[in-house]
Amino acid sequence: MPDSLPPLLETALYPAVKRFLEERGFAVKGEVRGCDVVATRAGEPPLLVITELKLSFTLELVLQAVDRLRLADEVWLAVVSSRRGRDRDGRVLKLCRLLGLGLLAVEPRHQRVEVLAEPMAYKPRPNLPERRRIVKEFGNRRGDPVAGGSTRQPIMTAYRQRALDLAVAMLDAPQRPRDLKPLAEDAGTMLLRNVHGWFERVQPGLYSLTEPGRQAALAWREAPITG
Fold first, then answer.
1. What's the CATH code of the domain at 91?
2. Are residues 113 and 158 in the same domain?
3. Which own/partner contact pairs does 11-16 have at CB distance under 8 Å and 24+ positions apart?
4. How many domains does the chain have?
5. HSE (CB half, 13 Å, CA atoms) of 147?
6. 80 CB neighbour count, 10 Å cutoff
7. Is the model's pLDDT at 85 over the cut of 60?
8. Looking at residue 185, which CATH number applies to its domain?
9. Do 29 and 95 lie in a common domain?
10. Does residue 131 sit within a domain?
């Protein structure tokens, strides 16, 4: 049975990273005052580049690199290349660009380096449609009905709040959409769509509550509005 390969160490990334920086015109040395890789290029003052090596992309690596930003003109992160690891996560690339960090994916055994992100400042393009949706939803909600971080209960959206208001109004008797418009201008559409399964049509133009709708309405009627 063949011997297993020895465990990979961070030092295995160094030769490929050193060559990568040398090809960019830098003089390179390892382990200078706690920095994994330091490279300089002649100038006045000289251009200083720091690279930190890790086997995979971690929060500790990012925090380490953030500290280096105060020292160097460029900061690179170098990790072992993977097919589906965090180095291939689009969110990681955005984070590196946002912080102005370079990111290298290294194949130590083949001495290959792939540049995933250049060390330059990045400003993401605003997502104005989603921003408007967030602001609209914030403004339409009454109070602050859900604690931040909640994951095990339905999110209390403005739409859900209006649906619950309709359900409370229907507790005593079936209602017509036009009678519910003071609570929700789109009451007719909400009753027809029946997103939550709370409403049922008993005859044309007249709606009542299902049992789940009744239970939701009773709970909502007792719930305090906070915020």
1. 3.40.1350
2. no
3. 11/53, 12/108, 12/109, 13/53, 13/78, 13/79, 13/80, 13/106, 13/108, 14/53, 15/108, 15/111, 16/106, 16/107, 16/108, 16/111, 16/112, 16/113
4. 2
5. 5
6. 20
7. yes
8. 1.10.10.10
9. yes
10. no
Single-letter code of the amino acid located at 78? A
pLDDT band at 190 (very low <50, low <70, confident <90, very high): very high
Cβ(66)–Cβ(50) below 8 Å: no
Residues 23 and 104 in one domain: yes
Same domain (yes/no): 79, 164: no
Model confidence band, residue 133 (pLDDT cutoffs 50, 70, 90): confident
Q: Are residues 19 and 101 in the same domain?
A: yes
* pLDDT at residue 104, rounded to an integer: 95
pLDDT of residue 1: 41
Contact status, residue 191 vs residue 162, Cβ threshold 8 Å: no
* pLDDT tens figures, 208-225: 999 999 999 998 888 755
Question: Which of these, 97, 68, 66, 92, lies nearest to 79 by C-alpha position?
Answer: 92
- Structural domain containing residue 25: 10-117
Residue 216: per-residue pLDDT: 92
Lowest mean pLDDT among 89-98, 119-128, 216-225: 119-128
Structure tokens that stand for 174 in this block: 């079936």
